[in-house]
Predict the 3D structure of the following.
Amino acid sequence: MAEPTKTATLTIDDQSYELPIYSPTAGPDVIDIRKLYGQAGVFTYDPGFTSTAACDSTITYIDGFKGELLHRGYPIDQLAGKSHYLEVCYLLLYGNLPSASELEEFETTITHHTMIHEQMHNFFRGFRRDAHPMATMVGVVGAMSAFYHDSTDINNPREREIASHRLIAKMPTIAAMAYKYSIGQPFVYPRNDLDYAANFLHMCFAVPAEEYVVDPILARAMDRIFTLHADHEQNASTSTVRLASSSGANPFACIAAGIACLWGPAHGGANQACLEMLKEIGRPENIPEYIARAKDKNDSFRLMGFGHRVYKNFDPRATVMKQSADEVLDLMGVENNPILATAKALEEAALADPYFAEKKLFPNVDFYSGIILEAMGFPTSMFTPIFALSRTVGWISQWKEQLADPHMKIGRPRQLYQGNTARDYTDIENR
Ligand code: CMC
């Protein structure tokens, strides 16, 4: 870590404490409070971590007011426009764009690790057919630690590397199998002649009875969805992965924890929730009623796919995703799809409404990704698994970075205790 650039002074009663301040390469300065409890006997209070940097990192930078997202310094719109998912995976994992030979070697490695242990197929068959694919993914990814013992030693750099490659390579296979199982179709094995995104679409939509040719426009849109979701700084699921990893848990267990956290509707579950909301709204004429509900303090309803904890002007991923949505919808000929019509009308209505403008609530990436996935033919239950497979590289990159950090400690937040002070146990007959 660099040397402190400034000092903050905290005064409690008449005692003062000097706190070092570090200046990042971009973003706000950070006050170092690590010794505060030892020196002053106080904790800081920040539920939701809105003002807390939990680690130092060199992977992803977000400026929520400028709507800027950088991976290793490269803007997301350049990566989405000029690069592709596996190259972005390499960038996130290793810090720089690969040379042609490095990329070829990386792609070959990933392509040749896409099959999962044949015995793992039995796990899928243990789930109910109507299980949510995220439930299946949490279970199956966690179970990888029972199959790939030769890549669970977190202190061995080679094992860490193998685990990283296995997770990136096998996650699409696991997500596609979760889908196939849920609809009662046979599993489709990966194909090494297809690229990462096309292979995923093939595993999801091919059946043994006939030839399935992946449309290159859909493969490109799929690759963009993967790229735009690859990493997002210290969000809830990434922080979950880091917290799980801080105890020394194996990589498969940590990523399973990340998948579990991503499932929630305020995070990765938002694209499913958004599409379900659009279906519930049904027609553009019903939008005013739902906008009124979203604004009503006594109603817990929120416009799913709107708002973001960090982006407060626009979500740069949403800008790129909107272009992809237009391309896919043109291709699929669904201009008159009532869900899309409702989505477009909702976007316009919310952007024109002063409530949403004042609170800086704009469509986020999940608003558009949900529309694209719906047009491609995915059921809403597959939206979050697709987010999970895309985000796996981000989780792994952050996990690797944390393990290499000499300052790493087990994560152990403290609390503002508001409960009873010590009291004597009362026997049951006296209560
Ligand atoms: N619809 C209506 N009102 C909203 C919404 C919304 N979608 N989002 C925030 N607000 C209001 C909220 O009621 C609050 O009002 P007030 O100040 O009067 O109490 C104000 O805006 C601030 O909201 P907040 O909940 O304090 O903000 P937050 O930063 O904690 O929440 C959020 C961010 C993403 C959880 C929230 O905007 C939300 O629930 N959005 C819908 C779910 C969604 O689309 N999530 C996907 C995020 S993008 C994918 C990802 O990166 O994981």
